[in-house]
Every structure is written in C-alpha cells, then in structure tokens.
Amino acid sequence: MLKKTIFMTFFLFLAGLFVYLGGSEEGMDMQKTMPKTKMEKVVEKERDRGAWENFKRDYLPYYKERKTPQGFWVRKGVDFFELFLLITCSMLIALSLEISGVLSLIALFLWPLLRFARLSEHSALAFMSSVRNGSVGNGILMSAKEGGAIDKRELWCSVLIVSSIATLGHMPSYILAIGAVCGHEALLAVASVRIGAVILQIFVILFIARLLVGDHQARQYQRPKIEFYEGSLKQFIQKLILKFGKTFKRMALYLTPAYFLVALAEFYDLFDKAFDFLSSKFDLSFLPPQASVILPAQFGSIHSALGMVRSFLEEGSLSPKQAVTILLIGTILTAPIRTIKRIMPTYVALLGPQGGLILGILAQVLRMGFLIIALILMYFIW
Questions:
Q1: Torsion angle of C-alpha atoms 121, 125, 130, 136, degrees rounded to 10
Q2: What is residue 105's three-state secondary structure?
Q3: Cα angle, residue 90 at apex, residues 84 and 96 outer, rounded to 5°
C-alpha cells in the first residue's frame, strides 16, 4: 500500500507540475510579441494552430466572425467553457496533491517563508499553484477556510500574496517583449520596475501577515512532517469530491453571471468608454505627444502598442526611456479595467461576491501603488 501511495503521489506531482508550468496564456503568446517579418508570422500562425483551435475555427458556427454579434458571443461562450474547465481540472489536481501528502513536501520547501509570516501549510500549496494560475491558489485557500484550517485573516493575506505571485509568474513574456522592441536597457529597466515592485509587495504583505495572523492564531510553528496518504483509492476519491464540492457550487453559482455581465459590458464598449474617462482625469502632459497614440492601443493589446513604439523608435522621435515610461503608465491606467474584465469574475466565483470584490480591488490597488513607487524611482535613476 505504501508503494502504491508513493507512486500515486509522484504521478500526481508530475501531473500538477505539467499543468502549472506548461505555460501561461501570456507565456505562450510571448513569441507573438517578438519582432518578425510578415512571412514569419504567417508561417508561425499556420504551424502553431493546434487541434482544439482548428476545431473551433472549422466547426463552431460564427467563431471566425470577430466583428459580428454572433461571433462575439460564440467566442465568449467558448472562452467561458475553457476557463471553467481549466479551473476545475487545476483545482482537482491541486486538491489531489493536498490529500496525497505532497502538501507537506511543499510546506517543507517553503518553511522559512511560512514561519516568518506564520501561515499554514495550505497557504504554501496556494503559493505554488499560483505560479501557473492564481485562480487555483484562491480556490485552495477558500476550501481551507471553509474546512476550518485557516481563518479570515490568513485567507485575505494569502490571497493578496497569491495575486502577487501570479503576476510575477506571468511577467517574463511582457518584459521580454518590451526588451525585444526597445533594447537591452529598456529590458533591464522594465524587469527592475515590475519584478522589484512585486517582490516588495510580497514582503510587505508577509510582514503584515506576521502581525495579523500570528498574533491572532495560537499555532505551533513546527517544521512540517512528511506524511503520505495511506487509505484506499475509493476513500481518496470521496475526500477529493467532498473538498471540491463547495468550490464547484460557488463556480456554478457566481462565475456564470459575473462572466456574462463582463461580456455584456465589453459588447457595448463600456470598457472603452471607461478607459477614455480615466484617461481624461489624469494630467499626462509630462509625457511625449506619442503617448496619445500608444496608450489607446495598449488598452486594446500590448502587441499593438509595441508595434507603434517600434515605429517611433525607428523614426528617432521617441527614446527607450520615454517608451518604457509610457508603457508602464499605460499598465497603471488599464489596471482598473483589466481587474473588472479579466480578474473579477474568478475572484467572485472562488471567494464569494463580497470577499471577491474587496480582495480583487485591494489586490490591484496594492499592485499599482507599488508599481508607481518603482516607476518614480526608475524615472530619476535611469
């Protein structure tokens, strides 16, 4: 039985590692941001179309029609299905790792961090999971909260750390893309600002967690013991279903309406109007005039903004420092819209309406606050 348990645990660990480190959506899109000729783009597009993408394009009605209402809603329906399936599969794998005993290995690996912030083993699993998908980390924490393993203070602090780690995990593609267009100095500057801001944010939250969580919970902070699951496979599945049941109910109850409301707002261009409103409230006169073209393009896609930046750099009308400053300010301006559009539905679905709204907004406020501090330092140092 022990050998079977160790084998099953090792298999689940490899499966989880494959899912988590298999590449985020931004990581897979990194090559699209690198400068290529038109022929290279066409060849890469035809070569990289997978079986699922081919199926969607060839068999789903209206899927190819991006600019029609039918095409919009078909795409949103497919995106919703993919999101729901991704969170479900990732949560099942993460909870399997927890039940099988791999959680103790992860906690042992992150023991210095947990001991400093006085957090539980469940936070360790959430931190590791958030490298691939922050939603999975939030789901693990909420499941632990409902099971009585952690309290509300640890939940909130750990969710904020999960948000920071998820941002850090998805950042390489963004940094490399800007470096490919703007040069090695810009690459170093963007990496220093974005990564430095996130690391500083994580340590500040860990220190706050030490003050709030540690004094509130009477927990014995001992080194985790490695204990593998030794029950039957039937009991293993029963525990897995029991743990995942409440998470699945929340997703079914909250994710669907939240995702539909966001899609409806996008359909009626409310996000574009909100971005125009936010831009009008900020005095951007200190930026070069090219910012008036780059920032709206960045709201649509970082790829479009980088294309314009590359043109201005080749003309010599924009310096790498100015380009990096514009792109980072664009990141700050688009943060509120990005929170509602991409992050808020999953926060509400996994953490509940009230907690999801508060933590989603708080996570973005902290992230942008530390980014502004790092941007100011870069502006005067570079």
A1: -110
A2: helix
A3: 135
Instruction: Take residue 345 and report the two structure tokens written for it.
Output: 């539905």
**How far is 322 from 330, CA to CA, in rounded Å?**
12
Q: What type of residue is 361? A: I
**Distance from C-alpha of 153 to C-alpha of 212, rounded to nearest angstrom:** 7
Q: Does position 225 have pLDDT exceeding 70, yes or no?
A: no
| Phi and psi based region of residue 240 (left: phi greater than 0; alpha: psi -120 to 50; beta: remaining) | alpha
* Per-residue pLDDT reduced to its tens digit, 369-382: 999 999 999 988 88
Write the single-letter amino acid at 4.
K
- Residues found in the chain: 382
Whether 93 and 19 have beta carbons less than 8 Å apart is answered as yes
Residue 113 exposed, middle or buried by CB count within 10 Å (0-12, 13-18, 19+): middle
What the block records as the tokens of 213 is: 């969580």
Q: How far is 348 from 258, CA to CA, in rounded Å?
A: 7
Cβ partners under 8 Å of residue 36, min gap 6: 44
CA–CA gap between residue 163 and residue 168 (Å, rounded): 9
- Tell me how many degrees the CA angle 64-256-23 measures, rounded to the nearest 5: 60
DSSP 223: P
**What CA–CA distance (Å, rounded) separates 40 from 260?**
37
Q: Is the alpha carbon torsion for 138, 143, 145, 149 positive or negative? A: negative
Instruction: Return the DSSP state at 102.
Output: H
249, 241 contact by CB (below 8 A):
no
- Give CA angle at 282 (281, 287), nearest 5°: 150
Q: How deeply is 71 buried, as exposed, middle or buried, from its count of CB atoms within 10 A (0-12, 13-18, 19+)? A: middle
Domain coordinates of the chain in residue numbers?
2-21+49-381
What 3-state class would DSSP assign to 24? coil
- The tens digit of pLDDT for each residue in 89-111 reads 877 877 787 777 776 677 677 77
Burial tier of 260 (Cβ tally within 10 Å: 0-12, 13-18, 19+): middle
Q: Which residues of 205-218 are buried (b: 16+ CB within 10 A; e: fewer)?
A: bbeebbebbbeeee
Over residues 108-148, the pLDDT tens digits come to 777 777 778 888 877 887 888 787 678 878 888 888 888 78
